[in-house]
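@channel sequence for tomorrow's demo:
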Amino acid sequence: MNTTGLPSTQLLDSPRLRAWARLRPWRSCAFLLRDYACVALVAGGVVWFHSVRSAGGLHWAWEVPVVLLAVFLMGCLQHRIALMGHEASHGMLHSNRAWNDWLANLLIFYPLFSTLTMYRERHLGHHLHPNDPVHDPNLSGGKLERIWARFPMTKERFVACYYLKFFWPPFVLRNLLDLFLVLALENRGASAGHGSSRWRPGLLGAGYFIVISVVTLVSVWRGVSSWGVVSGLYLLAVIGWALLPAAAFSSGGSFAGSLKSAALLRLSFCTLLALVLGALAEQQGGGVILGFLILWVLPLLYVFPYLMLLREIYQHANAGTGEMDNTRIMHVDVFTRWALLAYGNDLHLIHHIYPNIPHDRLAEVHETLMRESSHYRAGVQQTFGVVRAAGGGSSLLDTLASATAGERDADQDL
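structure tokens (generated this afternoon):
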């Protein structure tokens, strides 16, 4: 898929494109394993500090800055895991399409309480109509008026509206609502003829997860086992799943397998999570549940949606709808790349031109195009640094504050 509207041969020759598009699944799995290892390291660090603090008789307030830092880092890691899910939505997690989709759900989307199918439909719609105010799904839900239409925006206003508002919960929670409607519920693009609008198994699944979560919490509070009740609820849920027609699970998103089977896997994943947390709480006490809520759920509700929004703004705000101006190449500092623009998201224009090239090849493609394609050199927008320009050129916030190409042309006509 070439979203520039230009034949690929006008930019790069086919043999090199085929070589760059060749997947190396072990690399993607290794990157994902590394992120989960960092998750375990952050969680383990908090547990270790809690033990040391308790043994030393220090006041609990000593843990507050440690926990806040851990929550932020965990949100960054969740965002990185989600970016690997973005790779999977293009079939680039594994060369086998079925393995790609099932692994993406089990290792990425289910832990983030979403599904590949729901994300893929919306994201591929974005690729077809980037920044289009009518057709780009990323601009729906009032985001066009509330966010995108406010650009260009001065640096000072950007800092106030986005950096400082990270500390203003209503702003972040509003973006959480946007994300929840996109990723946790049924796709609005699902065909009514397939039965999704009638049965809406996504809503039923969300209700089931809420029920077993409440059962687990109450059981821990009362000091009794939740295994029997949760297992019984799971059995009832499986019976309900079996009675629903396969068409009820259909949606507009593609999936290499049975969507009904995927729904059962998600149901089983959520049930197993509740059972494991309940069993650990029986052994170690209610602190296990509290730790999960603070170190996984809280970052997912607060830090993760904020990072998602900020990344989308960096990539697409104040950009056009043409083949070369709908996004940009961003040269940023190490932390910004790690937390926000990991896995090739700093080279977003290359991804939009060649979405079948894996993230670890994008830099080489960009460098090749800069050497060999005058069309690319003339059209690419590159930024250097985030707030202040580094090494010449414009910073990212400079670009978000500047007039768009269309506005500059209009000014020149006047």
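heads up for whoever presents: The mean pLDDT is 86.
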